[in-house]
Specification:
disordered C terminus, 749 residues, 40% helix, 5 domains, alpha/beta, single chain
Length: 749
């Protein structure tokens, strides 16, 4: 078919001085655009744009920008193309900058831009310096499939696949293996949280963050099958790997932090529970007999038994080095206990006892803060887990080491007993626990992983290696300079920049794409407030070849201490962003909404407040992030609205009891957007989601959905909504509607 397009063209004509830019446009480019699937309605020629920044002359006349072709899908610009004369260079130089300026223009905002001089066709992405595709036009037939995959109307998303299942439905969805279609998986709805229901995760060992086990398990069950390989390259406390094993999958746990490696390896190592009990009783008797308690015994123990010294703590710590986190008594008793554990010859028993010892460290130190609402002795946290810094507790708590070591023993035994039917000597070879970086998965072959579920670090939130110093020091787990260099955080003791964080996260996404099989899923958990990081994830994932498949709000359950202390800087929930690795991914279109970013922000906020009669910070943030993903304005959001708190506090009332923002009393909504634009904004979003859920909506359903979002002192007439709907959608039958597809008319006002 592509041969037919240009087979009669004599490319020697390009040498003629009469074959100029206009000939390239009409003779060569136009047939290609038409064959890609663009009709005249969706090929916008020579549109005049005003330069957004530069004006000339004393009267500050605006500069006009005029791209040759803007290609539309539905009502959005998908890519821009400029023709040049055959004598012009298009791989380098000012022509690239010129077309790039069209692509980033506020009225255009396309990911792709291209140039063609008759000899060559060159395609760029906004975020890459080198072309993503380049070929001689005489050989277009050899590149046609790739060109279609990038630029055909079907290569772009005008909406995302938002089909949700409840947890109950998801369980019933697990049918015969022959019915399992990896690609045809609906998104899960928000799942109920059951944190304390699994002994293998609750009570064994604290960690800085921990995904809810039943949520992770449900995602693994939903997006993979038994015997599939599940990867978590930011493994943390090991919930993904353990739950993969518990559901008969194979698993890889990877983390840069040696503390993470130790926790998961120790927990998953099969052990003879009867022999472990005998070893514990023997150790308990030895400790009771020789436990250093008097000043003299403590002094002797500190000289005889090694304990960590000299390891420097983060700058925001109350003390400088690791040994200052413990009283002399604590150091002596912990050192003696560790000495007894290391004498165990059986490696599996030794690992299990060290796991108990490591969690004992959480309570046996000077940063241990008891809970004000504790119902029994021992409830509390080390400050590294609670405050994300080493903060000496205002009140010293003298923990009975042996008593709490015995409690740790009971917790670990209960966890291992719960796991042993799935994680035992016969199955353990299905689990790999690796200390390493997510930026280098070279131990895995291309396309070897069936599902990825991961919860990466969130910028400045937690410097994991810095905060793990106390545990890594006592467990003799070294942390190298290379470990710090590869840690994907912002800030920390090594003052890592946002750029360094972005680079490492982007590299890890590239590696995840490489190792994941085609037609498989990646679920990426994220809870950062700054839209820049969301934009980074989506943009990098798309650039690598992932197709965005939708984001789901997911509660963490109980509000964290950090959230209670910092209600406006810490998000209590998270979004799970889902991607598919497919051979022909569709890019997210940036919707042409006809309004600026400030209006979009305020419209969205006030819409959420109207819908819920007051909205929490999480509801507002989630709605903006998801709308930004759906409609493609995260890039604008990240530039101007990295923190919404000042706007929210200045513009709305905040109710501390409900933690909700509301419209000021006796005032109307502030947004002054044209009524039809406001209706259009909600119609596009609502109809996009409905279309990809394969739903056709009645007019009454549409009105009932958008009317609460349009409260502003006046209520639009149904006829106005109908008029906008007729411009935006097409009627099916007597009273059902769907969003217009490309080729079915423009969305004009």
């Amino acid at each position: 078919m592509t041969e037919f397009i240009l087979e009669n063209f004599d490319f020697s004509q390009l040498n003629s001085p009469d074959f100029k830019e206009d000939s390239v446009r009409e003779v060569l480019i136009l047939p290609i655009l038409q064959q890609l699937g663009y009709d005249n309605q969706h090929i916008v020629r020579s549109k005049s744009l005003e330069h957004p920044f530069i004006k000339i002359g004393s009267k500050k006349r605006k500069i006009k920008l005029i791209p040759d072709y803007l290609l539309k899908v539905a009502d959005n610009y998908a890519w821009v193309l400029d023709a040049k004369a055959p004598t012009e260079e298009i791989k380098t130089g000012e022509h690239i900058e010129q077309v790039y300026s069209y692509a980033i223009h506020p009225e255009v905002r396309t990911k792709y831009f291209a140039l063609c001089n008759g000899y060559e066709f060159v395609l760029f992405r906004q975020d890459t310096e080198k072309p993503v595709l380049s070929f001689h036009l005489a050989e277009v037939q050899y590149h046609w499939e790739t060109l279609q995959n990038y630029l055909a109307p079907s290569a772009f998303q005008s909406g995302k696949h938002f089909v949700y299942e409840t947890a109950h439905h998801a369980k019933s969805f697990q049918v015969k293996e022959t019915d399992f279609d990896y690609l045809d998986r609906p998104l899960l709805d928000e799942l109920p949280v059951r944190k304390r229901a699994a002994k293998r995760h609750f009570g064994v060992h604290g960690y800085f963050t921990k995904q809810t086990w039943n949520v992770v398990q449900e995602y693994i069950r939903h997006f993979s099958r038994p015997d599939d390989l599940v990867l978590d390259p930011y493994g943390g406390s090991g919930v993904t790997a353990i739950e993969a094993m518990m559901t008969d999958r194979r698993a890889i746990h990877l983390d840069l932090n040696p503390m993470s490696f130790f926790l998961v390896d120790s927990l998953a190592t099969p052990v003879d529970l009867e022999k472990l009990g005998q070893a514990f009783e023997q150790l308990k008797n030895q400790f009771e007999k020789k436990c250093p308690s008097t000043d003299e015994e403590i002094a002797r123990a500190l000289e005889k038994y090694p304990y960590p010294t000299g390891l420097v703590l983060p700058k925001n710590s109350d003390v400088e080095t690791i040994e200052q986190l413990f009283s002399s008594k604590q150091k002596a008793q912990l050192a003696f206990l560790k000495h007894l554990i290391l004498k165990q010859k059986d490696a599996s028993i030794r690992k299990s006892l060290l796991l108990m010892f490591s969690n004992l460290l959480t309570k046996t130190n000077l940063t241990y803060h008891t809970s004000k609402v504790a119902t029994k002795d021992g409830q509390g946290d080390a400050s590294a887990f609670r405050y994300y810094r080493y903060r000496i507790a205002p009140k010293y708590v003298d923990i009975d080491v042996l008593k709490y070591f015995e409690l740790r023993f009971k917790k670990v035994v209960a966890a291992k007993r719960e796991m042993q039917s799935k994680i035992n000597a016969q199955t353990i070879d299905r689990l790999q626990v690796i200390k390493g970086t997510a930026t280098d998965l070279s131990f895995l072959k291309n396309g070897s992983v069936d599902y990825i579920y991961t919860d990466p670090p969130y910028g400045k939130k937690i410097p994991y290696l810095d905060l793990s110093t106390m545990w890594n020091g006592w467990l003799d787990l070294p942390v190298t300079a290379e470990d710090y260099a590869q840690e994907a955080i912002e800030g920390g003791e090594h003052d890592k920049t946002k750029t360094e964080y972005n680079t490492l996260i982007a590299k890890s996404i590239e590696e995840m794409y490489r190792v994941l099989k085609f037609d498989r899923w990646m679920s990426f958990v994220f809870a950062h407030k700054d839209p820049e990081f969301w934009h980074l994830i989506i943009d990098t994932a798309e650039r690598c070849g992932f197709e965005y498949a939708g984001a789901v709000k997911q509660s963490n359950g109980q509000t964290s201490f950090k959230k209670r202390q910092n209600p406006f800087t810490v998000l209590s929930g998270q979004l799970i962003i889902n991607f598919k690795k497919v051979r022909h991914p569709k890019a997210i279109l940036k919707a042409n909404l006809g309004m600026n970013i400030g209006e979009i922000i305020m419209q969205t906020i006030e819409g959420v407040i109207a819908k819920h009669n007051g909205a929490t910070l999480e509801q507002i943030n989630d709605e903006l992030i998801i709308k930004g993903l759906e409609l493609g304005f995260l890039d604008l959001l990240k530039k101007e609205y990295s923190d919404l708190t000042p706007i929210l506090m200045q513009t709305f009332d905040y109710d501390e009891e409900s933690e909700k923002f509301r419209i000021h009393k006796n005032t109307k909504f502030k947004t002054s957007i044209d009524e039809r634009l406001r209706i259009k904004y909600y119609l596009i979003s609502f109809l996009r989601r409905a279309a990809l859920e394969k739903k056709h909506l009645t007019f009454d359903e549409i009105v009932l959905h958008i009317m609460p979002l349009l409260k502003n002192g006046t209520t639009p007439e149904n006829q106005i909504i109908l008029n906008v709907l007729e411009d935006t959608a097409i009627r099916l039958g007597e009273n059902q509607w769907k969003l217009r597809d490309e080729g079915q008319g423009e969305l004009n006002f």
